[in-house]
Write a structure and sequence with these properties.
Blueprint: H1 2-8, H2 11-19, H3 34-40, H4 44-52, H5 69-73, H6 94-104, H7 107-115, H8 130-136, H9 140-148, H10 163-169, H11 173-181, H12 196-203, H13 206-214, H14 229-236, H15 239-247, H16 262-269, H17 272-278
Helix pairs in contact: 1-2, 1-3, 2-6, 3-4, 6-7, 6-8, 8-9, 8-10, 10-11, 10-12, 11-13, 12-13, 12-14, 13-15, 14-15, 14-16, 16-17
């Protein structure tokens, strides 16, 4: 089922199958993997997603007409039921259809599923809701519709990540703005104690960091390791974000559990421009 979904470009279903335990590097009888199937059909978004989840790419060579439905599925291709043999999960259930539509930004499908009674706050095997997935993929219209339909903005997945954190991680500025308008908790922390502002600092999401600070983010919040947003930015060489945080009165003298300040971290990483800013 994973190879079929990849060949057809169904990103939402690909993600659901992987979350349910499908083997990302499985090979069918014709010798094809999910990555090869997606790549040969030109589905770059699926290719990138599979690669990010650990798909092995060393055997992928794209050639003209490398794959056809016949040589991928055999000469007697049958209608495919998207169900992973390793799981009892069936993606045809309304909730999983909602997750898939949210990921792919299919607002009309989301509207229909909600009208048909899909549970807006139900979670998948990793604790993700449709709102979390739509936020992660930057599907603004879907996020807005889900919120209007009762999606809880501050639910956490199995790693204590919220929709706001996921949107921040992926740089979805417009979605972040919408979520904070709907009272997303800007100071919620994940399993490692990282806040959305710390994630923004690490990723160099300067405008998102500015937005979070405007809405009350704790600029000196420390994670379980003692890190701060300033330390995260300094470690990754995010000059613009470091400047923003310093202008917002981030404390450069705070220490992490290894007794390192943002200055020490910047020196260790060789970010000399940031070292000068922190002196």
């Amino acid at each position: 089922a994973l190879i079929v979904a990849s060949f057809e470009g169904y990103l939402g279903i690909v993600r659901l199958l992987l979350d349910a335990g499908a083997d990302i590097n499985s090979v069918n009888e014709e010798g094809f993997t999910a990555l090869l199937a997606a790549a040969s059909n030109g589905y770059l978004e699926v290719v990138n997603f599979l690669t990010s989840r650990g798909a092995k790419s060393e055997m992928v060579e794209i050639q003209n007409n490398l794959l056809t439905p016949e040589n991928l599925f055999g000469s007697s291709r049958e209608e495919v039921d998207f169900q992973d043999d390793s799981s009892e999960m069936k993606v045809s259930e309304p909730f999983y259809e909602l997750i898939s539509a949210a990921i792919e930004g299919r607002l009309s499908v989301v509207n229909q599923l909600l009208a048909d009674g899909a549970q807006v706050n139900k979670t998948d095997d990793v604790g993700r809701t449709a709102l979390m997935e739509a936020s992660s993929f930057g599907r603004y219209g879907v996020v807005k519709r889900l919120l209007e339909s009762g999606a809880k903005v501050n639910l956490e997945d199995n790693q204590k990540m919220t929709a706001l954190m996921l949107a921040t991680l992926e740089g979805r500025e417009r979605v972040v703005s919408l979520l904070v308008d709907w009272k997303a908790d800007v100071n919620a922390a994940d399993a490692e104690g990282l806040s959305s502002l710390m994630i923004a600092g690490n990723e160099g999401r300067t405008e998102i960091a500015r937005l979070l600070i405007k809405h009350g983010a704790d600029i000196n919040w420390q994670s379980k390791s003692g890190s701060t947003a300033l330390m995260e930015s300094a470690a990754e060489g995010r000059t613009d974000t470091v400047k923003l945080l310093l202008d917002a009165k981030a404390d450069p003298l705070l220490l992490d559990l290894l007794a390192r300040s943002a200055l020490i971290i910047a020196e260790q990483q060789g970010h000399l421009d940031i070292v000068e800013m922190l002196k």
